[in-house]
Amino acid sequence: MTEEPDDRETIEKIRKLKEALGERLIILTHHYQRKEIVDLGDFKGDSFGLSQRAAADKDAQYIVFCGVHFMAESAEILSQPHQTVQIPAIEAGCPMADMADSVLVERAWEALDQVVGAAKITPMVYMNSDAELKAFCGKNSGLVCTSSNAPVAFDWAYSQREKILFFPDQHLGRNTGNQKGFKPEEMIVWDPEKELGGNSPDAIKKATLILWDGYCHVHTRFSVAHILSMRERFPDAKVVVHPECPESVVQQADAAGSTSFIVNYVKEAEPGSVIIIGTEINLIDRLAREYPDRKVLDLHNSLCPNMFKINLRNLLWTLENIGKVNVIEVPDHVKADARKALDRMLALASA
Ligand code: 13P
Ligand code: SF4
Question: Looking at the predicted structure, is the pLDDT value of residue 2 above 60?
Fold first, then answer.
Protein backbone atom coordinates (compact mmCIF):
# COMPACT_ATOMS: atom_id res chain seq x y z
CA MET A 1 0.00 0.00 0.00
CA THR A 2 1.44 3.39 -0.95
CA GLU A 3 1.24 6.25 1.51
CA GLU A 4 -1.21 9.06 0.69
CA PRO A 5 -0.17 12.71 1.43
CA ASP A 6 -2.72 12.68 4.28
CA ASP A 7 -1.01 9.59 5.75
CA ARG A 8 2.38 11.28 5.61
CA GLU A 9 0.98 14.23 7.54
CA THR A 10 -0.59 11.92 10.13
CA ILE A 11 2.65 9.96 10.48
CA GLU A 12 4.57 13.20 11.00
CA LYS A 13 2.13 14.28 13.75
CA ILE A 14 2.42 10.86 15.45
CA ARG A 15 6.22 11.03 15.34
CA LYS A 16 6.20 14.51 16.91
CA LEU A 17 3.87 13.41 19.71
CA LYS A 18 6.04 10.35 20.33
CA GLU A 19 9.09 12.54 20.55
CA ALA A 20 7.38 14.92 22.98
CA LEU A 21 6.25 12.04 25.23
CA GLY A 22 9.69 10.41 25.10
CA GLU A 23 10.16 7.55 27.55
CA ARG A 24 6.80 8.16 29.16
CA LEU A 25 5.21 6.35 26.19
CA ILE A 26 5.60 2.87 24.73
CA ILE A 27 3.68 1.66 21.67
CA LEU A 28 3.27 -2.13 21.45
CA THR A 29 2.18 -3.63 18.12
CA HIS A 30 1.00 -7.14 17.28
CA HIS A 31 2.43 -8.83 14.18
CA TYR A 32 -0.97 -8.60 12.43
CA GLN A 33 -1.02 -4.81 12.48
CA ARG A 34 -0.78 -2.81 9.26
CA LYS A 35 2.78 -2.00 8.20
CA GLU A 36 2.48 1.74 8.95
CA ILE A 37 1.40 0.97 12.53
CA VAL A 38 4.20 -1.56 13.08
CA ASP A 39 6.68 1.01 11.74
CA LEU A 40 5.55 3.52 14.38
CA GLY A 41 5.67 1.03 17.27
CA ASP A 42 8.47 0.57 19.79
CA PHE A 43 8.09 -3.20 20.04
CA LYS A 44 6.36 -5.78 17.82
CA GLY A 45 5.62 -9.34 18.79
CA ASP A 46 3.26 -12.26 19.19
CA SER A 47 0.72 -12.19 21.99
CA PHE A 48 3.15 -13.91 24.37
CA GLY A 49 6.07 -11.58 23.59
CA LEU A 50 3.82 -8.56 23.99
CA SER A 51 2.57 -9.75 27.38
CA GLN A 52 6.18 -10.33 28.50
CA ARG A 53 7.09 -6.84 27.32
CA ALA A 54 4.11 -5.30 29.12
CA ALA A 55 5.04 -7.11 32.34
CA ALA A 56 8.69 -6.04 32.05
CA ASP A 57 8.09 -2.36 31.41
CA LYS A 58 8.01 -0.52 34.72
CA ASP A 59 8.94 2.94 33.46
CA ALA A 60 6.56 4.10 30.76
CA GLN A 61 3.53 5.89 32.11
CA TYR A 62 1.47 5.23 28.98
CA ILE A 63 1.20 1.94 27.10
CA VAL A 64 -0.61 2.24 23.77
CA PHE A 65 -1.51 -1.23 22.57
CA CYS A 66 -2.05 -1.75 18.83
CA GLY A 67 -3.75 -5.14 18.74
CA VAL A 68 -7.13 -6.52 19.78
CA HIS A 69 -8.94 -5.93 23.07
CA PHE A 70 -7.91 -9.11 24.94
CA MET A 71 -4.24 -8.30 24.30
CA ALA A 72 -4.55 -4.75 25.66
CA GLU A 73 -6.52 -6.12 28.60
CA SER A 74 -3.72 -8.60 29.39
CA ALA A 75 -1.21 -5.74 29.23
CA GLU A 76 -3.37 -3.80 31.71
CA ILE A 77 -3.49 -6.80 34.09
CA LEU A 78 0.30 -7.12 33.93
CA SER A 79 1.06 -3.40 34.12
CA GLN A 80 2.05 -1.38 37.19
CA PRO A 81 -0.53 0.72 39.08
CA HIS A 82 0.97 3.99 37.76
CA GLN A 83 0.65 2.86 34.12
CA THR A 84 -2.29 3.48 31.80
CA VAL A 85 -3.07 1.12 28.91
CA GLN A 86 -4.99 2.48 25.90
CA ILE A 87 -6.13 0.84 22.66
CA PRO A 88 -6.68 3.07 19.58
CA ALA A 89 -9.93 1.23 18.62
CA ILE A 90 -11.90 0.02 21.64
CA GLU A 91 -14.18 -1.99 19.33
CA ALA A 92 -11.30 -4.17 18.08
CA GLY A 93 -12.47 -7.44 19.64
CA CYS A 94 -11.86 -11.09 18.82
CA PRO A 95 -14.88 -13.22 17.81
CA MET A 96 -13.11 -16.35 19.02
CA ALA A 97 -12.55 -14.85 22.46
CA ASP A 98 -16.30 -14.12 22.58
CA MET A 99 -17.15 -17.80 22.06
CA ALA A 100 -16.61 -18.51 25.76
CA ASP A 101 -17.85 -16.40 28.64
CA SER A 102 -17.71 -16.91 32.38
CA VAL A 103 -21.36 -18.01 32.68
CA LEU A 104 -20.88 -20.78 30.10
CA VAL A 105 -17.51 -21.84 31.51
CA GLU A 106 -18.80 -21.93 35.13
CA ARG A 107 -21.72 -24.06 33.93
CA ALA A 108 -19.37 -26.47 32.12
CA TRP A 109 -17.13 -26.62 35.19
CA GLU A 110 -20.05 -27.56 37.46
CA ALA A 111 -21.20 -30.24 35.02
CA LEU A 112 -17.69 -31.69 34.79
CA ASP A 113 -17.41 -31.59 38.58
CA GLN A 114 -20.54 -33.77 38.81
CA VAL A 115 -19.13 -36.34 36.40
CA VAL A 116 -15.43 -36.59 37.27
CA GLY A 117 -14.72 -34.07 40.03
CA ALA A 118 -13.20 -30.67 39.26
CA ALA A 119 -10.12 -31.57 41.32
CA LYS A 120 -9.03 -33.80 38.43
CA ILE A 121 -9.08 -30.98 35.85
CA THR A 122 -6.78 -28.02 35.13
CA PRO A 123 -8.66 -25.18 33.44
CA MET A 124 -6.47 -23.67 30.72
CA VAL A 125 -7.49 -20.57 28.86
CA TYR A 126 -6.01 -19.34 25.62
CA MET A 127 -4.76 -15.76 25.82
CA ASN A 128 -7.56 -14.95 23.35
CA SER A 129 -10.18 -14.58 26.07
CA ASP A 130 -11.57 -11.93 28.38
CA ALA A 131 -10.13 -11.11 31.82
CA GLU A 132 -12.91 -12.92 33.69
CA LEU A 133 -11.95 -16.24 32.13
CA LYS A 134 -8.32 -15.69 33.03
CA ALA A 135 -9.50 -14.92 36.58
CA PHE A 136 -11.52 -18.17 36.57
CA CYS A 137 -8.32 -20.08 35.77
CA GLY A 138 -6.35 -18.14 38.37
CA LYS A 139 -8.92 -19.08 41.04
CA ASN A 140 -9.08 -22.74 40.03
CA SER A 141 -5.35 -23.59 39.92
CA GLY A 142 -5.24 -23.13 36.15
CA LEU A 143 -3.28 -20.95 33.78
CA VAL A 144 -3.19 -18.99 30.53
CA CYS A 145 -1.34 -20.12 27.42
CA THR A 146 -0.60 -18.70 23.99
CA SER A 147 0.16 -20.44 20.72
CA SER A 148 3.88 -20.15 21.48
CA ASN A 149 3.81 -21.95 24.82
CA ALA A 150 0.79 -24.30 24.66
CA PRO A 151 3.00 -27.47 24.70
CA VAL A 152 4.87 -26.44 27.90
CA ALA A 153 1.64 -25.22 29.48
CA PHE A 154 0.13 -28.68 28.76
CA ASP A 155 3.13 -30.36 30.42
CA TRP A 156 2.69 -28.19 33.49
CA ALA A 157 -1.06 -28.83 33.62
CA TYR A 158 -0.67 -32.61 33.35
CA SER A 159 1.95 -32.57 36.10
CA GLN A 160 -0.78 -31.12 38.35
CA ARG A 161 -3.96 -32.96 37.32
CA GLU A 162 -5.05 -35.72 34.92
CA LYS A 163 -7.31 -33.70 32.56
CA ILE A 164 -7.37 -30.25 30.91
CA LEU A 165 -10.42 -28.18 30.08
CA PHE A 166 -9.10 -25.98 27.26
CA PHE A 167 -11.01 -22.92 25.98
CA PRO A 168 -11.97 -21.25 23.71
CA ASP A 169 -9.93 -22.45 20.67
CA GLN A 170 -10.55 -26.12 19.94
CA HIS A 171 -7.98 -26.14 17.11
CA LEU A 172 -4.99 -24.92 19.11
CA GLY A 173 -6.03 -27.42 21.79
CA ARG A 174 -6.34 -30.35 19.39
CA ASN A 175 -3.15 -29.51 17.50
CA THR A 176 -1.28 -29.38 20.81
CA GLY A 177 -2.90 -32.66 21.90
CA ASN A 178 -1.74 -34.25 18.60
CA GLN A 179 1.78 -32.95 19.24
CA LYS A 180 1.65 -34.70 22.62
CA GLY A 181 0.61 -37.95 20.92
CA PHE A 182 -2.99 -38.14 22.20
CA LYS A 183 -5.36 -40.53 20.47
CA PRO A 184 -8.49 -38.96 18.88
CA GLU A 185 -10.75 -40.59 21.51
CA GLU A 186 -8.80 -38.90 24.32
CA MET A 187 -9.88 -35.48 23.02
CA ILE A 188 -13.56 -34.55 23.22
CA VAL A 189 -15.30 -31.35 22.13
CA TRP A 190 -17.45 -29.43 24.62
CA ASP A 191 -20.41 -27.73 22.94
CA PRO A 192 -21.68 -25.22 25.54
CA GLU A 193 -25.19 -25.32 24.03
CA LYS A 194 -25.64 -29.02 24.82
CA GLU A 195 -26.16 -31.11 27.94
CA LEU A 196 -22.74 -32.31 29.19
CA GLY A 197 -21.26 -30.46 26.21
CA GLY A 198 -22.79 -33.13 23.92
CA ASN A 199 -20.80 -35.97 25.57
CA SER A 200 -21.69 -39.09 27.50
CA PRO A 201 -20.44 -39.37 31.11
CA ASP A 202 -18.29 -42.28 29.98
CA ALA A 203 -16.62 -40.25 27.19
CA ILE A 204 -15.87 -37.48 29.72
CA LYS A 205 -14.33 -39.97 32.15
CA LYS A 206 -12.08 -41.37 29.40
CA ALA A 207 -11.06 -37.98 27.97
CA THR A 208 -7.70 -36.41 28.76
CA LEU A 209 -8.40 -33.19 26.91
CA ILE A 210 -11.76 -31.41 26.84
CA LEU A 211 -11.83 -28.86 24.01
CA TRP A 212 -14.23 -25.93 23.96
CA ASP A 213 -16.10 -25.65 20.67
CA GLY A 214 -14.52 -22.32 19.60
CA TYR A 215 -12.53 -21.29 16.54
CA CYS A 216 -10.97 -18.35 14.71
CA HIS A 217 -12.74 -17.47 11.46
CA VAL A 218 -9.50 -16.05 10.03
CA HIS A 219 -7.66 -19.37 10.40
CA THR A 220 -10.46 -21.84 9.69
CA ARG A 221 -10.61 -20.37 6.15
CA PHE A 222 -7.49 -22.32 5.23
CA SER A 223 -8.01 -25.79 3.79
CA VAL A 224 -6.04 -28.83 2.67
CA ALA A 225 -7.15 -28.01 -0.90
CA HIS A 226 -5.25 -24.69 -0.62
CA ILE A 227 -2.09 -26.53 0.42
CA LEU A 228 -2.38 -29.14 -2.33
CA SER A 229 -2.89 -26.55 -5.02
CA MET A 230 0.05 -24.42 -3.80
CA ARG A 231 2.31 -27.50 -3.60
CA GLU A 232 1.40 -28.30 -7.18
CA ARG A 233 2.42 -24.80 -8.29
CA PHE A 234 5.51 -24.62 -6.04
CA PRO A 235 6.78 -28.19 -5.47
CA ASP A 236 9.83 -27.05 -3.48
CA ALA A 237 7.93 -24.70 -1.21
CA LYS A 238 7.67 -25.03 2.56
CA VAL A 239 4.26 -24.45 4.10
CA VAL A 240 4.05 -22.91 7.56
CA VAL A 241 0.74 -22.24 9.35
CA HIS A 242 -0.62 -20.92 12.64
CA PRO A 243 -1.91 -23.61 15.09
CA GLU A 244 -5.36 -21.97 15.11
CA CYS A 245 -5.80 -23.68 11.71
CA PRO A 246 -7.79 -26.94 11.62
CA GLU A 247 -5.93 -30.18 12.39
CA SER A 248 -6.05 -31.35 8.74
CA VAL A 249 -4.26 -28.16 7.59
CA VAL A 250 -1.62 -28.35 10.34
CA GLN A 251 -0.95 -32.00 9.48
CA GLN A 252 -0.38 -31.17 5.79
CA ALA A 253 1.95 -28.26 6.60
CA ASP A 254 5.72 -28.49 7.08
CA ALA A 255 5.58 -26.49 10.31
CA ALA A 256 3.12 -24.74 12.61
CA GLY A 257 3.66 -22.11 15.26
CA SER A 258 2.83 -18.70 16.68
CA THR A 259 3.18 -15.49 14.71
CA SER A 260 6.73 -15.02 16.09
CA PHE A 261 7.56 -18.61 15.08
CA ILE A 262 6.40 -17.78 11.53
CA VAL A 263 8.50 -14.57 11.50
CA ASN A 264 11.59 -16.57 12.54
CA TYR A 265 10.84 -19.32 10.04
CA VAL A 266 10.99 -16.81 7.18
CA LYS A 267 14.03 -15.07 8.67
CA GLU A 268 15.95 -18.34 8.85
CA ALA A 269 14.93 -19.60 5.39
CA GLU A 270 17.61 -19.62 2.67
CA PRO A 271 17.55 -16.78 0.13
CA GLY A 272 15.72 -18.05 -2.96
CA SER A 273 13.42 -20.35 -0.98
CA VAL A 274 9.64 -20.36 -1.33
CA ILE A 275 7.58 -20.09 1.86
CA ILE A 276 3.81 -20.35 1.82
CA ILE A 277 2.12 -19.04 4.94
CA GLY A 278 -1.29 -19.76 6.44
CA THR A 279 -2.06 -16.87 8.76
CA GLU A 280 -3.30 -13.26 8.72
CA ILE A 281 -2.49 -11.41 5.50
CA ASN A 282 -0.92 -8.25 6.95
CA LEU A 283 1.87 -10.27 8.54
CA ILE A 284 2.49 -12.18 5.30
CA ASP A 285 2.59 -8.98 3.24
CA ARG A 286 5.05 -7.42 5.67
CA LEU A 287 7.33 -10.48 5.57
CA ALA A 288 7.22 -10.50 1.75
CA ARG A 289 8.39 -6.86 1.76
CA GLU A 290 11.06 -7.44 4.42
CA TYR A 291 12.57 -10.47 2.64
CA PRO A 292 12.52 -9.69 -1.10
CA ASP A 293 15.19 -12.36 -1.75
CA ARG A 294 12.74 -15.11 -0.66
CA LYS A 295 9.35 -15.83 -2.22
CA VAL A 296 6.86 -15.33 0.62
CA LEU A 297 3.31 -16.19 -0.44
CA ASP A 298 -0.06 -16.47 1.26
CA LEU A 299 -1.80 -19.83 1.36
CA HIS A 300 -5.03 -17.88 0.92
CA ASN A 301 -5.85 -14.21 1.52
CA SER A 302 -7.36 -13.99 5.03
CA LEU A 303 -7.60 -10.70 6.91
CA CYS A 304 -8.47 -10.17 10.58
CA PRO A 305 -10.96 -7.29 10.37
CA ASN A 306 -10.55 -6.53 14.07
CA MET A 307 -6.77 -6.13 13.93
CA PHE A 308 -7.38 -3.89 10.90
CA LYS A 309 -9.52 -1.50 12.98
CA ILE A 310 -6.35 0.15 14.29
CA ASN A 311 -5.21 2.81 11.83
CA LEU A 312 -3.09 5.97 11.65
CA ARG A 313 -6.03 8.21 12.48
CA ASN A 314 -7.12 6.46 15.67
CA LEU A 315 -3.49 6.04 16.76
CA LEU A 316 -2.97 9.80 16.34
CA TRP A 317 -6.21 10.52 18.23
CA THR A 318 -5.06 8.26 21.08
CA LEU A 319 -1.72 10.04 21.35
CA GLU A 320 -3.44 13.44 21.23
CA ASN A 321 -5.55 12.26 24.17
CA ILE A 322 -2.90 10.35 26.01
CA GLY A 323 -4.05 8.85 29.31
CA LYS A 324 -7.66 9.85 28.60
CA VAL A 325 -9.43 7.94 25.81
CA ASN A 326 -10.05 4.22 25.30
CA VAL A 327 -8.37 3.45 28.61
CA ILE A 328 -8.54 -0.28 29.44
CA GLU A 329 -9.94 -0.93 32.88
CA VAL A 330 -10.19 -4.24 34.72
CA PRO A 331 -11.87 -4.40 38.17
CA ASP A 332 -9.31 -5.07 40.94
CA HIS A 333 -10.80 -8.40 42.07
CA VAL A 334 -10.75 -9.77 38.49
CA LYS A 335 -7.26 -8.42 37.96
CA ALA A 336 -5.77 -10.18 40.99
CA ASP A 337 -6.99 -13.66 39.94
CA ALA A 338 -6.30 -13.10 36.22
CA ARG A 339 -2.77 -12.03 37.09
CA LYS A 340 -2.21 -15.34 38.91
CA ALA A 341 -3.08 -17.29 35.74
CA LEU A 342 -0.90 -15.03 33.57
CA ASP A 343 2.00 -15.19 36.03
CA ARG A 344 1.86 -19.01 35.96
CA MET A 345 2.32 -18.83 32.19
CA LEU A 346 5.13 -16.27 32.39
CA ALA A 347 6.91 -18.38 35.04
CA LEU A 348 6.98 -21.37 32.61
CA ALA A 349 9.00 -19.30 30.15
CA SER A 350 11.67 -18.52 32.70
CA ALA A 351 11.67 -22.02 34.30
P1 13P B 1 -0.04 -15.18 18.40
O2 13P B 1 -0.10 -15.50 19.85
O3 13P B 1 0.64 -16.22 17.59
O4 13P B 1 0.54 -13.81 18.19
O5 13P B 1 -1.51 -15.18 17.81
C6 13P B 1 -2.51 -14.34 18.27
C7 13P B 1 -3.71 -14.42 17.45
O8 13P B 1 -4.70 -13.79 17.72
C9 13P B 1 -3.69 -15.32 16.31
O10 13P B 1 -4.90 -15.27 15.66
FE1 SF4 C 1 -9.05 -13.29 17.03
FE2 SF4 C 1 -8.56 -14.74 14.87
FE3 SF4 C 1 -8.25 -12.08 14.76
FE4 SF4 C 1 -6.53 -13.64 16.13
S5 SF4 C 1 -6.88 -13.62 13.93
S6 SF4 C 1 -7.46 -11.74 16.82
S7 SF4 C 1 -7.93 -15.21 16.95
S8 SF4 C 1 -10.18 -13.21 15.10
Answer: no
